[in-house]
Amino acid sequence: MRPGGLSHDFSASIESLTSAGLGSSIKHVVNQKAHISFTLNGEAAEVAFAPHKTLLEVLREDLGLTGTKHGCELGECGTCTILVDGRAILSCLMLGLDAEGREVETIEGMADGAQLHPLQVTFADTGAAQCGYCSPGFLLAAKELIDKNAKPTREEIQEALSGNLCRCTGYIKIYEAVELAAARVRGEEMELPLESVYGL
Hints:
The protein is an alpha+beta fold. The protein is 38% helix and 12% strand. The longest helix has 14 residues, at 135-148. It is elongated and about 55 Å long.
């Protein structure tokens, strides 16, 4: 991949067309910038970027929000999950242009200042975050679930997180972290089994 996100083959095609006198208009289109305004983590935001970019690329490369991770870039792993208008969306499959006028929440906006979201606390407490690469996607997918359903069953948690892959935890600690966070959001006390807390 060349700087600017253009593949070698695509750049070579433009160069060959230019040498034939046909590429100037193509280069003009490629170099154009799109400009959008939207709400990002509760604040008004504006950004200019190459119009072919996905929202994942815009967040990471143009806005510097690297908490949202590159994974498969095929919509299969869930690593790039963010919230758009309160819904879990795979940002690798959404064009940046489609964020115009929308409300976007990334992992950087999940905490309230210095106060972590209950999900962030329980992921740490239960060991649900190990290498951590997949955690932002899991956290935001789980947040959508808890926002809509304050008392999800284990089956509902599994379904909500079924599009997110983790290679470290075996998922049980993640499910338990979501259950614990949901209980705390409801203002209820919940005790996890000792083996969940201490790995017995």
